[in-house]
Specification:
The chain is mostly helical and 69 residues long. It is built from three helices and no strands. Helix content is 83%, strand content 0%. It is elongated, with a radius of gyration of 15 Å. It starts with a helix and ends with a helix.
Length: 69
């Protein structure tokens, strides 16, 4: 998912996708510790995507605060 696609999502959808991504990320880490994954770089990519989602949510939160002044 690209940054532009994240901006198009509603806050509720973004929050839901973030929760799902976190659960998948944790599950992948557990699975990788038991048996190595074919593509371990996917863990890194998932972690970066979670960070992008959190960044977008934080930016929206700050925009709401700034527009309320």
């Amino acid at each position: 998912m690209k940054k532009a696609e994240l901006k198009e999502l509603s806050t509720k959808e973004l929050t839901e996708r973030l929760e799902v991504a976190k659960k998948d990320y944790i599950q992948q880490k557990i699975n990788h510790s038991i048996t190595p994954l074919d593509n371990p770089s996917k863990i890194t990519l998932d972690r970066k995507m979670i960070a992008r989602m959190k960044t977008e949510l934080r930016a929206r939160e700050l925009n709401i605060k700034n527009s309320g002044k």
